[in-house]
Amino acid sequence: MTTESLSLTKKLSQESHSPDYYPIIIRLEEITKIYGSENTKIKALDNIDLTIEKGEYCTIMGASGSGKSTLMNIIGCLDRPSSGRYYLDNVDVSGLPDSQLAAIRNKKIGFVFQQFHLLPQMTALENVILPMIYAEVSPTERRDRALEALEKVGLGNRVNNKPNQLSGGQQQRVAIARAIVNQPVLLLADEPTGALDSQTTEEVLGIFESLYQAGITVVVVTHESEVARHSQRVIWFRDGQVIHSHLSPQELHSVID
Questions:
Q1: Using an 8 Å Cβ cutoff, are 98 and 87 in contact?
Q2: Which strand (E) or helix (H) includes residue 234?
Q3: In Å, how far from its chain's centre is CA 42?
Q4: Number of helical H runs and strand E runs in the chain
Q5: DSSP-derived 3-state class of residue 168
Q6: Which of 50, 77, 130, 200 is at a distance of 20 to 30 A from 94, taking alpha carbons?
Q7: Phi then psi dihedrals of residue 112, to 5 deg
Q8: Other Cβ atoms closer than 10 A to 186
Q9: 60: which residues sit within 8 A by CB, 6+ positions away?
Q10: Residues 190, 195, 200, CA angle at the centre, nearest 5°?
């Protein structure tokens, strides 16, 4: 384990003994999401109650249309529930204005998507620096933190390459570096290995594992059982409801078969 990881682990341990420590990072209470109106109503989420603790590594699984992507959009403050309460890091974000939600997304949540969403005209370093500009981090600190994040995902020698000079796996690593550079409390990944081959998938999942070991809360939405088996806990969705909230990876066969 690196010196940085040891330091973060020690910090988390100290927090866990603090009277102000609150171990739940995500708390959903009676969350419902309805699209459309009148005769066209579709209930994407149906009265969801769910908690995820700080430092957990979870995957959210379910068939297409089960509601897992809708849930991720709400957890990521990209969408709002029609009813219910969502507490992120012990703050009720359900009714916050868009400007505050944008600030929370920037400072508390790191996003990784199937399509890497890198700006093609920018280098890897510049892509990773970008979220720190919005967070008003000083220019000197931006560069130092971006270099550190790229080093952490194994791209310290590719900082000046543009996306078209990188493989798909390397582009996803840049996206992960960008997601963690603001030191978020939560890393959300939506089908992060969907565009990768099997070897690169294993490499990316290894990065998620190292981030989890360092104390970051990791939540991955996936339809791939092999991806889910790398996590600590599986949340299984069906028809907008949580059918199983605490499946172990070893128990996946009971819902898939």
A1: no
A2: strand 233-238
A3: 26
A4: 9, 10
A5: helix
A6: 130
A7: -130, 130
A8: 21
A9: 68, 71, 72, 219, 220, 221, 222, 234, 235, 237
A10: 100
Please enumerate in sequence order all residues whose Cβ is within 8 A of that of 216, keeping only pairs 6 or more positions apart, or say none: 55, 180, 184, 185, 186, 187
pLDDT digits (tens, 9 = 90+) for 159-204: 999 999 999 999 999 999 999 999 999 999 999 998 888 999 999 9
According to DSSP, residue 41 is labeled -
Q: What domains sit in the chain, N to C, each tagged with a CATH number?
A: 3-20+54-80+96-256 (3.40.50.300)
| Token reading at 16 | 């866990």
**pTM score above 0.90:** no
| Residue 117: φ, ψ to 5° | 55, 40
Measure the CA–CA gap between 25 and 46, rounded to whole angstroms: 21
Beta-strand (E) ranges in 54-175? 57-62, 83-88, 91-92, 109-113
pLDDT tens-digit readout, 106-123: 889 999 998 999 999 999
Strand order in the sheet with 83-88: 42-53, 24-35, 83-88, 91-92
> DSSP letter at 40?
G
Q: Which among 169, 167, 172 is positioned nearest to 111, based on CA atoms?
A: 172
Pairing of β 186-190 and β 217-221: parallel
Query: 31 and 48 in contact (C-beta within 8 Å)?
Result: yes
Give the helix ranges, DSSP H, for 17-96: 68-75
Q: Which two tokens stand for residue 95?
A: 């009714």
